[in-house]
Design goal:
Elements lengths: L5 H5 L9 E3 L2 E6 L2 E8 L4 E9 L2 H9 L12 E6 L4 E3 L7 E7 L6 H15 L4 E7 L4 H11 L4 E4 L5 H4 L7 E5 L5 E5 L4 H16 L1
Parallel strand pairs: 7-8, 8-9
Antiparallel strand pairs: 1-2, 2-3, 3-4, 5-6, 5-9, 7-10, 10-11
């Protein structure tokens, strides 16, 4: 999420970083850096996601160093609120390539991100790709509203127990994890600009060909 997207995300004018108390989330921007503190069950009391540099380049650097790269993806079992089925269990998708995308309704760039995920789903589902979005919203209604507005058709789950953000080390949204047929997290991406999207497509085709 870029600082200049806060006009959409936080109701401020474009180019200004302002804070907003959103349900159980407090966002404060200090000198072009975003600090997000989220309370509640997600971190058993309090999770501070530190001072986050909100530039796409910095988000890409953090994604490139994601702690799950090269490791088996954690389990994810959730009910779906969009898509062709009602439930999803990540471990049952061994043998398939999975794109796991984390987002929120209050992220200024996540509307575009959902559209990007939808394009991946419509283009590569026939090749065996499974695209799953995961909303980290506090209020499921906000996530469902954005999904309806974007006309999302691919699978989306809601982090009902507020544990997935920590389990999958989500420090920025959007976050994309590419999981290979063996269940290993092979690639990670932050916000997808044109260059990042092109690189993701190269990696995705490589995984589908393996």
């Amino acid at each position: 999420m870029r600082c200049d997207d806060h006009g959409c995300a936080y109701g401020a004018s474009r180019g200004r970083c302002l804070g907003l108390k959103y349900v159980e989330r407090i966002a404060t921007v200090v000198q072009g850096r975003l600090r997000i503190v989220r309370t509640g069950a997600w971190s058993a009391g309090l999770l501070a996601l530190a001072l986050i540099d909100c530039t796409p380049a910095a988000a890409a650097d953090r994604a490139a160093g994601h702690p799950l790269l090269g490791k088996a993806a954690p389990e994810l079992v959730e009910r779906l609120f969009t898509g062709p089925s009602r439930n999803f269990r990540l471990s049952e998708r061994r043998g398939e390539v999975v794109v796991l995308g984390f987002w929120t309704s209050w992220c200024g760039s996540c509307r575009t991100y959902l559209e990007q995920l939808g394009k991946l789903d419509s283009t590569y589902a026939s090749a065996g790709l499974v695209v799953v979005g995961v909303s980290l919203d506090d209020n499921p209604a906000n996530a469902a509203e954005l999904a309806r507005a974007v006309k999302v058709r691919f699978r989306n789950a809601f982090d009902s127990e507020k544990t997935l953000g920590r389990r999958f080390a989500v420090n920025d949204v959007p976050l994309t994890l590419l999981i290979d047929r063996g269940g290993i997290v092979r690639y990670a991406h932050g916000e997808l600009d044109s260059a990042g999207e092109a690189q993701l497509l190269v990696e995705l085709r490589q995984l589908l060909d393996e």
